[in-house]
Amino acid sequence: MELKDIKACKKQNAIKEAKTDYIYYAICFIILAILALIIIYPLYYIVIASISDADAVMTGDVWIAPIKITFKGYGSLFQREDVWRGYFNTLAYTILGTVFNVALTIPAGWALSRDYLPFRKVIMAMLIVTMFFGGGLVPYIIVCRALGLYQNPLILIIGGGVSVYNVFMCKSFFESNVPTEVLEAAQIDGAGEIRTFFDLILPIASSIISVMVLFYAVGHWNNYIDAYIFNIDKDFYPLQTVINGLLDASSSGEGDVVLEQMRTATQIKFTSIIVSTAPILILYPMIEKNFGQGVLVGSFK
Question: Is the pLDDT of residue 147 over 70?
Answer without folding.
Answer: yes
